[in-house]
GntR family transcriptional regulator (Brevibacillus choshinensis), 481 residues
Amino acid sequence: MSRNGTGTVKQPPKYKQIIVYIKEKISAGEWPIGSVIPSQRELATMFGVNRSTVITALEELMADGLIEGKMGMGTVVINNTWMLLATNPPPDWNEYVQSGNHKPSQAAVQEINRDESNQSFIQLSKGELSPDIFPLETMKGVLRRVTENLGTFGYEEPRGFLPLRQALSDYVKTFGIDASPSSILIVSGGLQALQLISVGLLHRGSTVLLERPSYLYSLHLFQSAGMKLSGLPMDKQGLLPGAITAQKKQKKGDILYTIPCFHNPTGLLMTEKRRLELLRVCEEERLPIMEDDIYRELWFDEPPPPPLKARDKHGHVLYLGSLSKTLTPGLRIGWVIGPELVIDRLSDIKMQTDYGSSSLSQRVAAEWLSSGLYSEHVHMVREELRVRKAAALHALERYMNELATWQIPVGGFFIWLKINAKVSMLELFSKASRQGILLNPGNIYAQETDGYLRLSYAYASLSDLERGIRQLSQIVASLSK
Ligand SMILES: Cc1ncc(COP(=O)(O)O)c(C=O)c1O
């Protein structure tokens, strides 16, 4: 309705009022498809108009494909699509959705992301610590202390909350990294670090060399920004550095991405010898490294060898860490350590992206780290994961010995399971989902690892781990026949 100059409300013409009335009835579901609408005579009486006005309205609705005259029945509703009911059709969002620059996740990844929040599933897929391990009481205490000491807060400086960067500087020293707060950038999780690197340091046509399979293949982060991924083979010691030289096609602007500690998805730990070799080759090739070390602290028997970054004397390595796998991904706190020039560039992009990570999360993270509670907590997490890993291995031994092969993990969240028989992984995934078990098929992490599953022992309860693996074995057995 619009107002005219005299302040009285101007009604739309009568035939439009009839159209609106009928559309509202249809869109509210009161007149579903197949309903016979009131006769012309009834409508004319309702609106106090003559039949010709009703006919004008009905003709417009017919032209829109919403109603149709049926012999012997009268006028019936034949369509209730919202698009047809809207006076002005909405923009074609489908076209917009298809044309955005960022590539969508694989359908399987989208499905897993949706089902990972479904509490009724046994989560053998989830790369997250179990709620049973969440340190709720300590977290409440930390939050109370943060609240007590809270001053006003707003945007932080571009590299992030200084006390957190100071706490991180002290913390990474414990595994050999010398980094002053000015070479640390706080980010909203390791994933944002990768995003910032892709847009801040690389260009269209750059190649990202990486282990194959890799977590990075499950995302389209770099490809969406016009970069190529180039997979490198691995053996039990980790990535094979010889393959970097063999490729002989490194260009300016290329970079290497590696997960040397408890690799996602294979769980492999790169040996010290291999680390030194990799660093040497990358230095020779002038190939910078993104070292994603977010599983480092989740070791079982002995700490992993020092990070590549700890040996990096020439600023080759950008080091990525996060609280997501050790404390909670809910804080969305991660960090990048690198040459100040790079940190400045990435912090500028970060400012342009989100003006910094949550001030509150940064204060909470700083309190965890500087109070020493974080180290204590990580110690407890290792104990818990050890128990879970043992339970998963026990169930695998018991139920899957004949059906699959695997390595015993030395840390992290995952067992990389190779199914012995050639089974359709799609069928396996769907069948397991129907039985309430969520799996991560290996082909998310590289096409050729189709016969693999990434099994997480971090999230499910001990009884669910046992039950899930038992049911999985039955499904694999049924598909192997
Ligand atoms: C190897 C690796 N890097 C980065 C991430 C991203 O973690 P976040 O952004 O929560 O720190 C993950 C999460 O699964 C991961 O497995």
About this structure: The first strand starts at residue 2 and ends at 3. Residues 1-7 have pLDDT under 50 and may be disordered. The chain is about 40% helix and 15% strand.
